[in-house]
Write a structure and sequence with these properties.
single chain; alpha/beta; TIM Barrel; 16% strand; globular; binds iron/sulfur cluster
């Protein structure tokens, strides 16, 4: 195993240098019309729901900017009324002058809508397939638009066609066999990379965490297997960024710093208004790394890496 890790580490340094890009998720809504068994925002859960106004999003963003963040990931449930393209266009337009990169992890859209949102400052789209196992997919996505496997599968390509600069793909670990899912994800990225070579691609492997739905993941993955997954992905996709969230523990995140990960979130809240608005909305899941951004940045430097708050300026 140490040879695998050494190879992954060397490749990461060679292709990406000794840097770690930091970003913050900003939850703008937890309203959702989908019924996904594993998610705290699932339609059937009796939780406190909230969609932030444009002014509230700006207040949350201002809080994150003070912490040093220049890259924001705006996250929401899928609700075509509450989180419409018009609303998202207003949110993006209100933030674009203050941040160097704005990403969306929301419902998947058609190419024309991605194009329109790009005009308002969108430069990164995140859309995870969750699992490539069609039976498992159908089992956990019980109702709502997300139940449509094919429409979701084609979303990264629709975003690429719209000229979105960077697209994030991923699988949710716990739903199905992680080795088969990772293999399918890697193949999917390889196909899209060949077709859309000007697009930057990233992958992520969020692990299911406790949430309001009380879902018990049928396919657990150990920390050792998680490290193996990151290292083998680096070797299979040497030029593709790997994104790590605060779902993982501080200890594991620190270990993964040199193993292939290139971007990580820090100091995350997973409920709308959670940073600065004393919101009573319910979170999507419990995070495992509760360190503030400055502490995460210090841990990155301790490993001899440079924390990067800004590596892209969309205005250019
Ligand atoms: S996973 Fe996404 S679509 Fe499904 S319930 Fe959660 S927020 Fe809604």
């Amino acid at each position: 195993m140490s040879e695998l890790f050494a190879q992954a580490q060397a490749l990461t340094q060679q292709r990406f240098g000794r840097v770690m890009q930091l970003f913050a998720p900003l939850y703008i809504s937890n309203e959702c019309v989908d019924l996904c068994d594993y998610c705290g925002f699932s339609f059937s859960n009796q939780i406190a729901r909230k969609t932030l106004s444009v002014a509230e999003v700006q207040a949350e963003a201002a809080y994150l900017k003070k912490q040093g963040f220049q890259h924001l990931l705006l996250v929401s449930g899928e609700d075509p009324k509450a989180v419409s393209p018009d609303y998202l266009a207003q949110v993006l337009a209100g933030l674009r002058g203050d941040f160097s990169s704005l990403a969306l992890e929301v419902a998947p859209f058609e190419t024309e809508i991605y194009q329109r949102l790009k005009e308002h400052g969108l430069d990164r789209v995140v859309v995870y397939q969750e699992t490539y196992d069609r039976e498992a997919y159908a089992r956990v996505h019980r109702a709502g638009p997300k139940r449509n496997y094919a429409r979701r599968l084609e979303a990264p390509e629709r975003a690429a066609r719209a000229g979105i600069r960077q697209i994030g793909m991923g699988i949710l670990l716990g739903l199905s066999d992680w080795r088969q899912d990772a293999t399918a994800l890697i193949e999917h990225v390889k196909i899209l990379k060949k077709r859309y070579w000007q697009t930057e691609w990233t992958v992520s492997f969020p692990r299911l965490r406790p949430c309001a739905s009380g879902y018990n993941p049928p396919h657990l993955i150990t920390d050792e297997e998680y490290k193996e997954l990151i290292a083998t992905t680096r070797i299979a996709l040497p030029d593709v960024g790997i994104v790590l969230s605060t779902r993982e523990s501080p200890e594991l995140r620190d270990e993964l710093l040199e193993l292939g990960v290139t971007q990580m979130s820090a100091g995350s809240c997973t409920n709308p208004g959670g940073y600065s608005l004393a919101s009573e909305s319910t979170e999507q899941f419990e995070i495992a790394d509760h360190r503030d951004p400055a502490t995460v940045a210090a841990a990155i430097m301790k490993k001899g890496l440079e924390p990067v708050w800004k590596d892209w300026e969309s205005i250019l």
